[in-house]
Design goal:
By secondary structure, the protein is of the alpha/beta class. It has eleven helices and twelve strands. The protein has helices at residues 13-24, 28-40, 54-63, 135-149, 171-182, 202-210, 226-232, 241-250, 273-283, 308-320, 356-359, and strands spanning 70-76, 82-87, 93-101, 104-108, 112-114, 129-132, 158-161, 194-198, 216-220, 259-265, 288-294, 325-327. Helix 4 crosses helix 5 and helix 6 (202-210) runs parallel beside helix 8.
Length: 360
């Protein structure tokens, strides 16, 4: 068994302060220095932390470990997107994607090995769920991409929890990672630049809303009727559209900030004219913007890509109804890095139902 109590990346700033004061007799200022060395400067060698006394550095070096990201594979798309295959504890594999977008890069990280949600249009859902990732395993993906990005002369400006797994099913691991990502002594990212996505775990959305974690929220809607949504997203049997939109309405957003509603357009299934008009009605009065995501038929799950002109028709109509609607054309399809394509096959896993306690 790995001793996670010694893994530096599993500690929040407040936990590090408490540990240093209790076990090392060190002040809060030392925790600040450590966080800045590790997260701001990428330094994990205590010998280089010269503003900390040698005696304390020796004690800290004997205690803390800094597990490295193990990159098994990296593939580069013709559009500049990069997909990483990371090995985490126990030999499990997860994927992360550095998405090339106009004028910026966005890092998409995984939160679980597989996924229990079983969405029919997502390859990760075919894996079932093996386990959730620790905070350290999530942050190691970030660190690994930061280090490798130097080979390409770029860096990411945004992070999205939209890789393998349902982020809010791993509530503690994900929110702890978000805290370190947005901590002013940690990575120092703006909460506006960090987005957590969910298929619609309503109790977890409400728990996030009442927590002290500040983060952007994205919700996968993907249908305008419960009948269709239940067919493609089993979670709808537990938390239907009405319940989901009520949680979205109550979610706290700051000035000029909105919840992102993700709508994967499945040709001939959820992209009819009636769906288009219903979507506008459903979104009315909510603090949301809409991302239209044309399905990637090369995910091989039996769904169809909508006609390109029809996607633009949807966008124009939603905009005419006072909504902010954007088209998110997928990147990295030629390396299976696009939306819905992430999956690893190194481990046999089984799907199990999500219990209320895990989601709440």
């Amino acid at each position: 068994m790995v001793d996670t109590s010694r893994d530096f990346f599993n500690y929040s700033y407040s936990e590090l302060v408490e540990l240093l004061e209790r076990d090392f007799g060190a002040t809060k200022f030392r925790a600040t220095q450590l966080f800045e060395w590790v997260y701001r400067k990428g330094v994990t060698d205590f010998d280089q932390m010269t503003n900390i006394s040698r005696e304390l550095r020796e004690k800290l070096a004997a205690f803390f470990t800094f597990p490295k990201a193990r990159i098994h594979d990296r593939r580069v798309s013709s559009d500049g997107t990069r997909k990483y295959l990371f090995e985490v504890e126990g030999g499990d594999l997860v994927e992360s994607v550095m998405i090339k977008q106009p004028n910026r890069m966005t890092l998409c990280v995984s939160s679980q090995v597989g996924c229990a949600m079983g969405c029919k249009f997502c390859r990760t859902g075919t894996m079932g769920l093996k386990r959730s990732l620790s905070t350290s395993e999530i942050l190691r993906q970030v660190n690994g991409v930061i280090e490798d990005a130097r080979n390409f002369g770029d860096s990411f400006q945004n992070i999205v929890f939209m890789g393998m797994g349902e982020p809010l099913h791993n509530f503690d691991g994900v929110t702890r990672a978000v805290r370190n990502l947005t901590d002013r002594f940690g990575y120092g990212m703006s909460p506006r630049k960090v987005t957590v996505s969910t298929v619609g775990l309503v109790p977890a959305i409400r728990r996030l809303a009442s927590s002290d974690v500040s983060v952007s929220l994205a919700v996968s809607l993907n249908a305008t009727t419960d009948e269709v949504r239940s067919k493609v997203m089993p979670i709808n049997e537990r938390f239907n559209i009405e319940e989901l939109l009520a949680a979205v309405k109550d979610f706290p957003v700051g000035p000029r900030k909105k919840v992102t509603m993700e709508y994967v357009m499945l040709g001939g299934l959820n992209d009819t004219e009636d769906d288009m008009r219903r979507l506008a009605r459903l979104m009315r009065g909510l603090p949301v913007k809409v991302n239209l995501i044309p399905y990637n038929d090369n995910a091989g799950l039996g769904f169809n890509t909508p006609a390109r002109d029809w996607v633009f028709t949807w966008q124009r109509y939603l905009n005419s109804q006072g909504l902010q609607a954007f088209i998110r054309w997928s990147k990295g399809a030629d390396i299976a890095a696009a939306c819905g394509q992430l999956a690893t096959e190194s481990k046999k896993v089984s799907r199990f139902p999500v219990v209320d306690q895990a989601a709440a």
